[in-house]
Write a structure and sequence with these properties.
- By secondary structure, this protein is mostly helical.
- It is built from nine helices and no strands.
- The chain starts with 10 loop residues before the first helix and ends in a 29-residue tail after the last helix.
- The C terminus is likely disordered.
Length: 222
Amino acid sequence: MTTPASDERSDQALLRAHVDGDAEAFGVLFSRHRDRLWAVALRTMGNPEDAADGLQDGMIAAFRRAGSFRGEAAVTTWLHRVVVNACLDRLRAAKIRRLEALPDDVEDRGTLVATAEHDDQPDAAAEDAERRRRVLAALATLPPDQRAALVLVDMEGYPVAEVAEMLGCAEGTVKSRCSRGRAKLADLLLDLHQPPGDPPHGNPPPDGPVQPMLRERGPPAP
């Protein structure tokens, strides 16, 4: 029996097979990209319950609209676009602004919430946890469009061009949303970037390049 891990078909082949009536193909495709889609939904929505609803909405939409995929972008880009749009629709409809603690098994990636392992340093681990909580709480105050752009570019490490495809907007719009979002976060989180006694260094220029500042970490283990 073929399992998701052993199925060597490409993403496009799986999507075509699903459209052609293969009852297992979409499940294999979802299993292949589930962790990263969940991470994006969780950080966009701000808490596990709403993230699960947003991810479910997105997967239902992708399942039903698979026949509309024309191959102009990678399948994973298309899946992210559908999930992010589903999350943004929920945010705009419900005006969700609350943020709950992330599950312990969700790994953070990219620039905004990357933390080191401190298994043997309880104080450092607590400091990292508080830093993550502060960053995610600040992220939740941003408008949904800015939040989605920052999640995809800074936390998930996607190139600006690919994020533009996901969000259905121009690259300049993605850069502008990231720049405005970073400026707001810088004001809210100034003390996290400034060692005690150091003078403020100011915000990065709003028109600067959008690029990850720290090494990207691998996806969470299933």
